[in-house]
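Quick bug: Glycosyl transferases group 1 output formatted oddly.
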Amino acid sequence: MKSPIMRIVLISTPIGFLGSGKGGGVELTLNSLVSGLISLGHSVEVVAPKNSKLHESNVRAKLHFVEGEDQISWQHQNYNSPVSIPDNSLLVGMLEKGLNIAKHADVLLNMSYDWLPIWMTLNLEIPIAHIISMGSESSVISNLISKVYAKYPNNFAFHSKMQANDYPFIKKPTIIGNGFNLDNYIFQDSVKGPLAWVGRVAPEKGLEDAVYVASQLGEKLKVWGFIEDEMYASKIEKSFPQGAIDWMGFLSTDELQKELGKCRGLLNTPKWNEAYGNVIVEALACGVPVVAYKRGGPSEIIQHGKTGYLADPDDKKNMLSYVEIIEKIKRQKCREWVEKNASADIFANKVVNWLNKVMHEYK
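Here's what came back:
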C-alpha cells in the first residue's frame, strides 16, 4: 500500500554548506534522500547553511538558507568534551527556521549529529526524527540519545548494524542503510585503470595506508576529497616518494563519478567505525570494486570475493594482497549489487516507513 503524501522539513548538517565537502557523507546522503522522497511524491523543504546547493535533480525541493557560525564536528573533539554552541550559531538558526516551517509540516527530519536537536525532541510536540550519521563520538550525545530513546524509541535511525552497535541501549535499532540516485552514476568497464581513494583528508580516514599499497605496486594513488587537515596531508606526502599522490581535489558527484569509473579499484582505509561508507557504494555504482578494512559499515556493504575484498583492519600488507587480485572481481556484479540494495527509491521507502512509525508515536 502506498504511503500518504508527507510534508517533510529536513535539517542539514551545520558543519558546512551543501557542496563544500565539509559535511562529508551527510551531503551525499541528504541529496540522495531528497531525490528519492520527491520521486515518491512527497513534499520536501531543506534548511541548510548559506551558499548550499542541492543536486540539479532536486529542483522541486525548496531550499531555505541560514547564516551563522559553523558547528565543530564531534569527530574532532574529545569523547568527553562538553557541548559548545558558538555566538550566532548556525545550528540554532537552522533549528529555529526549521521549527517555524514545520508548523505546517508532518515531520522534522534532523541530519545533524549534535546535542541541541536531540534535546529538543523531549520539549516539543512536533515529531522530530533523527538520522544518526556517526557511531558514538560523544559521551554527552550518547547519554542524551539514551534518555530520549526511553520515551521515543522510534525516533532514531542508523545506516548500519555495526554503527548501531555503538549504542547498546538501543535493543532493536532501525537500520535504513543508504541510497543513491543511480542516474548520476555511469557504469564503466575500466579494468586497467589506476587505484583510487575518496574521502575527507583527515587522520581518521587512514589515507597513508592506501598510499602505502599503491607505492608498493609502483603506482600513483589518485585522491579525491576535501583536505580537512593540511598538516596531516603534508605529513603523508613527506612519508612517501615525491609524486606518490595525485591530488584531484573535491569534485561534485557528476564530475567524481566520471573519473572514479575509470579506476580499476577503490581503497577504503578508515581508522574508525564508519557509519556506512558512501564512497564505497559510489564506486560500486560505477562498476569499481573496493578493497576495504573489515570494520564498520563497509563490512556490511562489500561482498567479499564478489564486489571487492575485506582486509584485516589496519593490515596494509593484507590489503595489498587483495589489490593484486582485484581483476578477479566482475565489475558488472558491483553495479548490480547497488541496483538491488542501494538505490535512492529503496532508501527513501525505508525512511518513509520509519517516519510513519515516528509520527504514529505523536498521535
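Actually, after a second look the formatting is fine. The mean pLDDT is 95. Closing.
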